[in-house]
Amino acid sequence: MTQLKHPYLMAIVVLLIGAVFIYVTQPKRGDCDVYVENFRKQVQSEIYGEKRGSVFFPPLLLKALENCRLGNTAGACLRVRELTMQILDVLDRFPDSCLKSLTQEEVLPAVFKQVLQLWIEIAWGESPPERGNFCGDGCWFDVSDIALFCRWKNKAIYLFGWETLKGWEPFLLSNLLYDRAIWENDQCVNCDQRRRAIDVVGIDDVKTRSLLGLNCQRF
User: Fold this and answer.
1) Do 112 and 193 reside in the same domain of the chain?
2) Digit-coded pLDDT (tens) for 166-176
3) Mind listing the pLDDT tens digit for each residue in 17-62?
4) d(CA 146, CA 116)
5) Domain contains 96
6) Which domain holds residue 145?
7) Residue 110's closest CA among 76, 54, 147, 159?
8) Residue/partner pairs of 143-150 with CB below 8 Å, 24 or more apart
């Protein structure tokens, strides 16, 4: 049997083998469409909503976010935790080579923004936290909540990129308030006058004090 001795010929053979391996193992364009469709099916009820007969059921995550915002307790937000972990688990199994197709799903950026915004607002509390302490008055987060936030944030960066997350900052920080509420006889007497934090101290300072500015490498 003739052996291959010429180094250039050997290099060509290695390149051909590598090209064949990539071709065989990487999903084709049609395969990516299949993966995206499977993703939709796996999180249909969670983020898309579904129609049963003539009745449309809204996304489970949408209702969970509403309940969490209103209740603002670990119990009221438990369903958000469960659903976000389910969604993350599905995303973790999604092939990297098809992520471009997945990020074209219009609902996905909105879902990530809504969850990030809620977590940031809960951590902020009634007024700006002290620098270095992203959890303000009324914040009930523990380490597991912070770890989940960081996992969600890191997945957003992985899917959409740092620049996209940077572009979301005005939205994510827009509802954080600078002035503490004043209550008299069970009535908030200054709620109509409370200023947004970004209008008082600027977006960079707000980000630094907020959960968004947390270094997630620790979690």
Assistant:
1) yes
2) 999 999 999 99
3) 443 344 344 445 578 999 999 999 999 999 999 888 889 999 999 9
4) 11
5) no
6) 106-219
7) 159
8) 143/219, 145/74, 145/81, 145/119, 146/211, 146/214, 146/219, 147/219, 148/81, 148/84, 148/85, 149/116, 149/119, 149/211, 149/214, 149/216, 150/214, 150/216, 150/219
